[in-house]
Amino acid sequence: LHEYQVIGRRLPTENEPTPKLFRMRIFAPNEVVAKSRYWYFLSKLHKAKRASGEIVSVNEIFESKPLTVKNYGIWLRYDSRSGTHNMYKEYRETTRAAAVASCYQDMAARHRARFSSVQIIRVAEVKAADVRRPYIQQLIQPNLKFPLPHRNTRAAKRSDRSLIIAQRPSTFY
């Protein structure tokens, strides 16, 4: 999934020679889908459609620090089988696009919501102090450790290994 900045406007007319530009940040697998989603959202927000408008530019937005792990809050709405619901979810990812991709996967897993029925309203980086969800809070602790309590060491060479050993293996460290 990529993040695109799509800028478009209505076509110029005699009444409106310089139409207002509308800019959106859209998450999509490619530029074609990004343009399609742009017109989908714009027709809902303003009285504009693809036939009477034009796209001025499409640019991919890249993450400034793609190697650091950050906390992201995602506001979304989705259509379920019973109705439309608003939702806030938190993810720990390296990029905004990765956070949104894991959000789509999560919505598909937990709520059976398809890509077309999920609308991302806002994506924001959340400070560690402002994280609300406990499943993200448990990963923010300063001295977090992942111990490996039950390890089974093997001999490096095949000739040193044997099927029958005099004592049980010591797996606790």
Written overview of the protein:
Helix content is 20%, strand content 32%. The chain has helices spanning 31-45, 96-111, 134-137; strands spanning 2-10, 21-28, 53-61, 70-79, 84-93, 118-126. The strands form two sheets. Strands 2-1-3 form a three-stranded antiparallel β-sheet. A hairpin with a 4-residue loop joins strand 4 and strand 5. The chain is elongated, with a radius of gyration of 25 Å. The model has no long low-confidence stretch (mean pLDDT 92).
What's the quick description here?
The chain is an alpha+beta fold and 173 residues long.
Output the keywords.
173 residues, alpha+beta, three-stranded antiparallel beta sheet, elongated
Structural classification: alpha+beta
Number of strands: 6
Instruction: Report the total helices.
Output: 3
Strand content: 25-35%
Query: Could you estimate the helical fraction of the residues in percent?
Result: 10-25%
Biggest pleated sheet = 3 strands, antiparallel
Write the H/E string, N to C.
EEHEEEHEH
Q: Give the neighbour order of strands across the main sheet.
A: 2-1-3
Distance between the termini: 42 Å
What's the topology here?
Blueprint: E1 2-10, E2 21-28, H1 31-45, E3 53-61, E4 70-79, E5 84-93, H2 96-111, E6 118-126, H3 134-137
Antiparallel strand pairs: 1-2, 1-3, 4-5, 4-6
